[in-house]
Each structure stands twice: as C-alpha cells, then as structure tokens.
Specification:
The radius of gyration is 13 Å and the shape is globular. Helices cover 40% and strands 19% of the residues. The longest helix is centred in the N-terminal third of the chain and has 12 residues. The chain has five helices and five strands, in the order βαβαβαβαβα.
Length: 127
Amino acid sequence: MNKKKVLIIDDDARNIFALSATLKARSYVCLSRNGAPEAIELLRENDDIDIVLIDMMMPEMDGYEAIPIIKGLQNHAQTPVIAVTAQAMVGDREKCLAAGADGYISKPIDVDQLLLLLQKDNTDSDD
C-alpha cells in the first residue's frame, strides 16, 4: 500500500506539529506550509500530494481564498481538501464546503473524526 501524502497548511506551528505527529504515527507522509501562497506553489510543482488539510483563518490568504485556487490547479482539481477551523459557528461548515472544501473539521481536532475523513477520501484512490 502506498503511503498517503498529506499537505498541512496552517500559520500556527503548534497545529502543524500536532497534526503531523498524529498522522505520521498512522503512516501518513506529511508536508507542511505556514501560508497558502507557499502551499499553492508546492502544489503547482508536485502531483503526488493526496490530501490537503487547510486552516481557514490565516493572514495574507485564508482558506476561503486558497481552496478555489487549489481546486483550479489542473494537477489537483480532484485532490480532497479538508477545511480545518477554530470557527465552529452555525453555517461555517456550509461556508467551507461552498468555497470548495471536500470536508470540514473544527479545532480542537477530534483525531478519530479526522481519520474517518482521511479514510473516506482515500477510498476513491487507485492503490
């Protein structure tokens, strides 16, 4: 089985560290960027990223701006993008999905819920 490669986009190094540690312990390969512009550049140059986890609230370019750009990249139009947000307000899930996210999870992250989302997105892959 190929190890799934996950790109974590978050402006908080603590969140990147926690997510990476959790996913690496479950055999995911993790890459990270602390801003959407850098992450988009990485995605433009790499076809082998399987899943993107993106913080919706970041300076410079937030997830709502970044997701349509990511989905517009020819090599990542079908790559699942999961919105990660501390905003757990009514309507936030719908707003994230309307921006193009394939899934949504709120902080603090429930690891079991995250793994279910990742497995759901992995079921469509060609291993």
